[in-house]
């Protein structure tokens, strides 16, 4: 049930549409803007009503992704990724990440231009 799914996560409060996020693999493998994403919000699977996080890559062909919200907002699996420095799979971008976006010539979404 949709209301039950809403109560299982606080995903809608963690990020706002337009936030720039970093994937945990950025620390080990991210160069330039790799592993940086713009968070677009939550969509609902039309058949199952499963909540899906929707986000766009800020590198390469700027592919649009949808991932089950439970996975998107999950902690990093420390067994599979003991070297990970982030607590969660996706976290808000750091100032150095935003600087990398500016250096690469990638324009920030309009609502990000004046954020710290």
Structural summary, described in words:
The chain has helices at about 1-10, 10-15, 25-30, 70, 95-105, and strands at about 20-25, 35-45, 50-55, 65-70, 90. It has one domain: DUF1653-like domain (SH3 type barrels, Roll), CATH 2.30.30.320. It contains 5 helices and 5 strands, in the order ααβαβββαβα. The chain is of the alpha+beta class and about 120 residues long. Strands 4-3-2-1-5 form a 5-stranded antiparallel sheet. About 25% of the residues lie in helices and about 25% in strands.
CATH class: Mainly Beta
Strand order in space, largest sheet:
4-3-2-1-5
CATH architecture annotation: Roll
In the predicted model, the low-confidence regions spanning at least 5 consecutive residues are 1-7, 110-116
Structural class: alpha+beta
Q: Which topology does CATH recognise?
A: SH3 type barrels
State the domain count.
1
> In which range does the helix fraction lie?
10-25%
What is the succession of H and E elements? HHEHEEEHEH
Radius of gyration: 15 Å
């Amino acid at each position: 049930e949709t209301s039950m799914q809403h109560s299982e996560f606080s995903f809608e409060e963690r990020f706002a549409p337009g936030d720039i996020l970093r994937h945990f693999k950025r620390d080990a493998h991210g160069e330039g803007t790799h592993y940086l994403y713009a968070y677009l919000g939550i969509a609902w699977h039309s058949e199952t009503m499963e909540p899906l996080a929707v986000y766009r890559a800020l590198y390469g062909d700027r592919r649009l992704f949808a991932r089950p919200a439970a996975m998107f907002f999950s902690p990093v699996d420390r067994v599979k990724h003991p070297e990970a420095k982030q607590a969660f799979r996706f976290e808000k971008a750091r100032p150095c990440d935003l600087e990398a976006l500016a250096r690469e010539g990638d324009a920030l979404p309009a609502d990000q231009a004046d954020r710290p």
